[in-house]
Amino acid sequence: MKALMIEQELQCRFHEVEAIEPGPGEVQVAVRHVGLCGSDLNTYKGLNPLVALPRIPGHEIGGEIIKAGPGVPLDYRAGRRVIVVPYTACGHCTSCRQGRVNACKTNRTLGVQQNGGLAEQIVLPYEKLILNDTLPARHLALVEPLSVGFHAARRGRVAKGDRVVVIGCGMIGMGAVAGAVSRGATVIAMDVSETKTEMARKYGASHTIVASSGHVDKQIEALTDGDGADVVIECVGLPATFTQAIDIVSFSGRVVYVGYAKEPVSYKTQLFNLKELDIMGSRNATAEDFTAVVRYLETLEHSPDDLISKVFPFQDAEQALPYWDAERASTLKILIER
């Protein structure tokens, strides 16, 4: 079968790889849609320290069951549509023992620590598949990235009446916006791209700030009656936005980091103490988050097709990452369709 492989920095092409038959407890899935993530782009650009090349990318996957191996429940029959949960959990580390399997110490995400789904087929344990025949096929691949943002809002204990700043309105940030709004918060969405901040308004942001407009701290003060944000969710991963989150959060506020800084970050740590902040990391998503996003998409009053910037047919997938690299400022989500 064909699979797209990132061979080395700035080089990807199709390879013929062996198709695998499902074993006990496993399901063979025809991959219909794969969303490309920032981690895939960083892998392509040689900036992802978690990836050893060559690697088949792709962990935002929607597909259709081909066949099931022995011991798989009868519900997982051929033709059923599925959402892939792309993470693993050892069941023994401190995170797993606390039920926080999304943060497993030895997690191996598809397309990152192991080959991903940008192939004609993939075989997975049935427990890693969420059956869904109600969402349009394209939207199945939107569930995982939105779930990461929903998880960040849950990590921040976002509640009704909170004023939440989301820094970065890419796909994860859009999930954080939607997740915070669904919890009753007033959201201020911030990005360098006016196109992306306007999209955030479609998903419930009450206010938007274009970061390049200047005096961001003053704008947030004005929008929060001088208090600062109750919760800041950072979805960029730059040292400047890491420290900015501490500056703009309120006293006794919460900061959630989803972004992954690629270089050291220097802080004025006295603000940690003076504000008595809760500072949290956020990693991946849980089954609860996936369920919340499916419910959200099933009841959304408009189609989330506007989140998809460009669709590449599977046979043209070699062009997708170079295109995104060239058009990053205007691109929210690229989808590969087969």
Automatic annotation (TrEMBL):
Entry's EC annotation: 1.1.1.14
Can you tell me which residues the record assigns to a coiled coil?
A: none
Molecular function (Gene Ontology), one example: zinc ion binding
Q: Which domain of life is it from?
A: Bacteria
Cofactor(s) for this protein? Zn(2+)
In terms of InterPro entries, this protein maps to: ADH-like_C (IPR013149), ADH-like_N (IPR013154), ADH_Zn_CS (IPR002328), ER (IPR020843), GroES-like_sf (IPR011032), NAD(P)-bd_dom_sf (IPR036291), Zn_alcohol_dh (IPR050129)
Ordered alphabetically, the record's keywords are: Metal-binding, Oxidoreductase, Zinc
Give a Pfam family name: ADH_N
* Sequence similarity: Belongs to the zinc-containing alcohol dehydrogenase family.
Please identify the protein, giving its name as recorded.
Oxidoreductase
